[in-house]
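Recall that a protein's primary structure is simply its ordered list of amino acids. Everything else, from secondary elements to tertiary packing, is in principle encoded there. The following example makes that idea concrete.
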Amino acid sequence: MPGSELYEEFMALHTREGGLVMPNAWDGLSALVLADAGFEAIATSSAALAATLGRPDGRHEVTRGEHLEHADLLGRLTGLPVNGDFEDGYGDTSEAVAATIEAAVEHGLAGIGIEDTSGDPDRPIRDFDEAVDRVRVAVAAAKRRIVVTGRTDNFIQGRPDLDDTIRRLTAFAEVGADVVYAPFPPDLEALGAIVAAVAPTPVNVLVSPSDEVLTVVELRQAGVKRISTGPFLYAGAMAALEQATKALVAGDLAAATAGMGFDRIGELIAGAKN
């Protein structure tokens, strides 16, 4: 599907009544499980991808090429629109961000997130002007061929400044970001303030505000248009693995091996689009 058509298709999911739930996959089988459940779009998770490779997230230790290959696999297997959780755009310069956007379009991604993070633990959030300029460059490079999400990580980087968060998200929307996103606002009131400030630009929420996990219905009532799960489905799968491992250590083979059957795995793989 040409980029412009994919853009329109993916944006339509955001602007319709109720928006969409967009879970994050971490490998081929997880993507197929999500597709089989009926989700209309999926996303990568930079944190989950990094963890599968045994690397930390947000420190530029996963390459752009690795992430593109990963996203390509998820889309090819499922035939679904894929949103790429591409950290800061994989590069310190605006030119690098533009190159990442172009590469994502070439790999058939439906959407891509550009954060204001830096990968530098001593200066985790980029200055306002630099952050806005990088989103501006991403939008210009996208040319309405891929949905661009402008994201600030203030809250998860220890900067609980709602005013600055709204200032950044508003600026991202003003330079053309199709969606805006600030993971873990402190509470529902702060989330409501964000939604109101950037309207009508769709807002993505990672599961819920920090103080309480809400339902999909409650988040939609708050005006949220896209709900993602980040690394949490992956973390849940790893929790199940840890429990099975403990059972194995204790000698309980039945509990250790009570997982998805290979018939079901084979059925999902047989139904893959590739």
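The first helix runs from residue 3 to 15. The radius of gyration is 19 Å.
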